[in-house]
Specification:
Distance between the termini: 35 Å
Number of helices: 6
Strand content: 15-25%
Structural class: alpha/beta
Radius of gyration: 17 Å
Shape: globular
Strand order of the largest sheet: 1-2-3-4-5-8
Order of helices and strands: EHEHEHEHEHEEEH
Number of domains: 1
Number of strands: 8
CATH architecture: Alpha-Beta Horseshoe
InterPro entries: LRR_dom_sf
Mean pLDDT: 67
CATH class: Alpha Beta
Length: about 190
């Protein structure tokens, strides 16, 4: 493959496992102007994101969609995404659809970077994870009020948080009976 053809690419979507991890890592190294990366249904996400930390300081948009992993692999992935948040200073949009972390440090980092990031969409698996994010967010963003909104249906003991800043939304877990309704723009903050 002639990798030189990729040098002007700014937006890249990688879907499924059609291309091998090694080829994709090589590809990412040859795209110096990469601004948007979307990974869909990849099970090698942490290896690919490591390339971002090493060589893509200009990344502006990161999207992860259904990057399912085992618990152990998810912990590794959360560390890598945390590194991307820390070391990609131009990052403005983070959207994670059905990609779950059980990492306190990830939610703390996301809260610290909130002022620099314009749009955030994350999926939390438990209310405690949402609480971690919101408590750290309040510590770092003192001039913004956030509300707790009870979810409908069987998951009414869970909470959705949203704030007046466009682009912040913490979504309910997908098993919730409210999940499908929520995705159909019932709330204006889901405005990507």
């Amino acid at each position: 493959m002639d990798w030189t053809l990729w040098k002007t690419v700014e937006n890249l979507t990688i879907r499924n496992m059609v291309i091998s991890t090694n080829k994709l890592r090589t590809l990412l190294r040859t795209i110096p102007k990469l601004k948007t990366l979307e990974l869909i249904l990849r099970n090698d996400t942490e290896e690919l994101l490591q390339e971002l930390v090493d060589s893509h300081q200009n990344l502006e948009v990161l999207k992860l969609d259904r990057c399912y992993r085992s618990t152990l692999q998810m912990n590794i992935l959360s560390q890598t995404v945390t590194s991307v948040l820390e070391y990609c200073p131009k990052l403005k949009t983070v959207m994670m659809t059905d990609t779950y972390f059980h990492s306190k440090s990830f939610y703390q980092c996301l809260a610290r970077k909130f002022r620099d990031i314009e749009r955030i969409s994350v999926s939390c698996t438990t209310k405690s994870e949402m609480d971690i994010f919101m408590e750290n967010l309040k510590q770092n963003v003192s001039d913004v009020e956030f509300q707790k909104v009870p979810m409908m249906g069987r998951a009414e003991n869970k909470q959705i948080y949203w704030g007046p800043i466009l682009g912040l939304v913490i979504r309910p877990i997908p098993t919730s009976p409210f999940h499908r309704q929520y995705n159909h723009n019932n709330y204006p903050t889901y405005a990507f």
